[in-house]
Design brief:
By secondary structure, this protein is mainly β. It has one helix at residues 103-122; strands spanning 4-11, 17-23, 34-40, 49-50, 60-63, 78-85, 88-91, 126-133, 138-139, 164-165, 168-178, 182-183, 186-187, 194-195, 198-205, 215-218, 223-236, 239-249. The chain has two domains: 4-99, Immunoglobulins (Immunoglobulin-like), CATH 2.60.40.10; 117-258, Thrombin, subunit H. The chain is 8% helix and 40% strand. A six-stranded antiparallel barrel has the order 8-11-15-18-17-16. A four-stranded antiparallel sheet has the order 4-3-6-7, with no helix packed on it. β16 and β17 (223-236) form a beta hairpin. The radius of gyration is 20 Å and the shape is flat.
């Protein structure tokens, strides 16, 4: 069974690369899991250098140190991801950062991201936080039914109703531009009537890429939002450069407000 099902290397608006990956949903090694990014000068038979800090990372990592050498015309590094669990060590496939974008396209994408960040920073943006909902990881047996697999407690301290442990990765600091508020009439899931939550369009760069179920935080107003959908406003070679998320405001009674406050085991 292939442990790593996806490995993505895209430009970071700083000076390096943004790495992200996914693990097979049925991979069930026990926690803790420790990820590390490794770089080498060849795809095989090379000495691998660890880039990540001690203690590892979660499932998104930005590498900016000494990034100028990465766009050198004569040197192209190769990367892989190492996963350590109590049961063993696993490696992703090896790939170059220019598999999806060549150097010229990489520099174009990075410049577009830089200008987007500059506009958000100097004008209407806020430095928000993005929590990415887990789609892989150890099963949370505290709230999942052992027979059906359904989630029995959406207020679980461990997974926050996602059924995975940890339930979210992050938070990641992202410059965001919020639209004006709109009302969206919805039927309450508990059958108690209708709700009219405030809905916003949130514009961000394409890394890290958001998805439905993620959580956006505006720390200035101490408000949180569920991401309902995401679309790419601009892509180059199918790489998202600018994205817009449709996000609805979370009621203060929602347990997701404890995310980042309640220590995760």
């Amino acid at each position: 069974m292939a442990v790593f099902t996806k490995m993505s290397i895209v430009p970071s608006y700083t000076r390096g690369f943004a790495f992200s990956w996914e693990i097979a949903p049925d991979f069930d090694d026990p926690l803790p899991w420790t990820f590390a990014i490794e770089a080498g000068q060849a795809s095989v038979d090379t000495e691998w250098e660890e880039l990540t800090p001690p203690g590892g990372v979660t499932n998104v990592f930005n590498w900016t140190e000494d990034a100028a050498r990465l766009v050198n015309k004569k040197l192209v590094l190769y990367f892989r991801i190492r996963l350590i669990t109590p049961n063993g060590v696993y490696y992703s496939y090896v790939r170059t950062p220019y598999g999806d974008l060549d150097r010229r396209e990489y520099l174009i994408v990075r410049e577009i991201m830089r200008k987007e960040i500059l506009q958000a920073e100097k004008l209407a943006g806020v430095l928000g936080r993005l929590w990415i909902r887990s789609t892989f990881g150890a099963i949370c047996y505290d709230c999942r039914d052992p027979v059906t697999g359904s989630i029995r407690n959406k207020n679980c301290d461990i997974c926050y109703g996602t059924g995975r442990s940890p339930g979210f990765h992050g938070p990641y600091c992202v410059w965001m531009t919020f639209s004006t508020a709109n009302r969206d009439t919805q039927m309450a899931k508990d059958g108690t009537g209708t709700r009219e939550p405030y809905v916003y369009s949130v514009r961000m760069i394409g890394s890290p890429y958001a998805k439905d179920g993620d959580v956006v935080v505006d720390p200035r107003q101490d408000k949180r939002y569920y991401v309902d959908s995401v679309k790419s406003e601009m892509e180059i070679r199918r790489i998202p450069v600018i994205q817009t998320a449709v996000a609805r405001e979370v009621p203060v009674s929602d347990y997701i407000h404890n995310l980042g406050l309640v220590p995760e085991e």
